[in-house]
Amino acid sequence: MEYRRLGSSELEISCLSLGGNIFGHFCDKQETQAIIDTAGELGINCIDTADVYSDGASEELIGQCVGSDRQRWIIATKVGVNSNEHPGGKGRRAYIFDHIEHSLRRLGTDYVDLYQMHHFDPDTPLDETVDALDALVKQGKVRQVGACNYSGQRLSEAHGLAVSNGAASFATIQTSYNAFKRQAEEDVFPVCRESGMSALVYGALARGVLTGKYATGVSAPTGSRATESASISTDLTAPVLNAVGRLTTVANAKGVSVTDLALAWAVHRPEVCSLIVGVRDPAQLEANAVAMDVSLTTDDISGIEGAIGDRGQFAELSLGTFPRWE
Question: Is residue 202 within 8 Å of residue 149, measured between CB atoms?
C-alpha cells in the first residue's frame, strides 16, 4: 500500500481509505469489525465517516471496532449536515463545538485526526467557521481540518482567511471525482496545487457504475445499489453503459478489471492523496486494494479518457457527484 502526505501536515495516509457511510446501515458490528480488520491487514490506515452517517451509529461502530488500536488509525469525520436544525447555521462556533463533543464520545476517543466541514454554510460568516476549527486544533481535539463539497472559490476563500487570521488551514478537500465526472480538475484541484491541500476522493467508481456490474440489455444484479437507489438506476443510460463497455475493453487489454482501471485512474492525479471506498464485505475491499498496485502509462490514461468520450453528455447525471443518503 502506498502512503501519501495529507496536505502539508505530518500525517501519511494510505492511498485507499475506508468509507464509513455503510456502517450501521448496511453493516452491523460484526460485519463492520471484519471490514476494519481487513483494512488494517491491507495497510489501509484511514477511516472516513460523518456525524450524520446512520444517525451517529457509524461513528459508534468505528469507535467500538477500532478500540485499543486507535493509534494506528487516521480517523476522519465531518460536521455540518444534521437533521436537527440549529439557529444561525451549521458552520457556527457553537454548533461545531457542540458536535465535536458528540463525535468524540461516539468514536470513543479524545481527538479526531481530520475534522471536515461537510458542506459550505452560507448562513454563517466563513471566518467564524475557520476560527472555530482553529480553536479545536488549539484545544487538541482535532489534529487537522478540512472541507467536503466546497467549491474551489469557497475553498480558496477559507484558505485565505486561515492564512490572514493565523488559523489552522484546511489540509484537505473531500470531493467527488471519477472518469465520468472530472469537474474537480477545473475547480478544486487548482486550489490544492496553490495552497498545498490534498484531495480525498469519493465516488471514484461512480457509485458502482464503473465496476462493470451493469451492462446494456441486462437487468441490474439482485442486491446491487441500482435496485435500491432511483438516482443510480437513472444514471444507467445507454451512453453510460456503452462507455463502460469500452472501458472494459481497455481493461481487458491491460489484463485488469474495469474496477481496477477506474480506481487506478482516479488515484494517479498528484492532487489526490486517497480514494475513499465504501464496501459491504472484506472481499470487496481486498479487490479494491489490488488497484493500488496498477500502474498506468500515458497511453493507458489516453485510452481510458478516450473510452469515456465527450463528458458533456453526462453532465446532468449524478454518477457519484453528490453524496446521497437513500
Answer: no
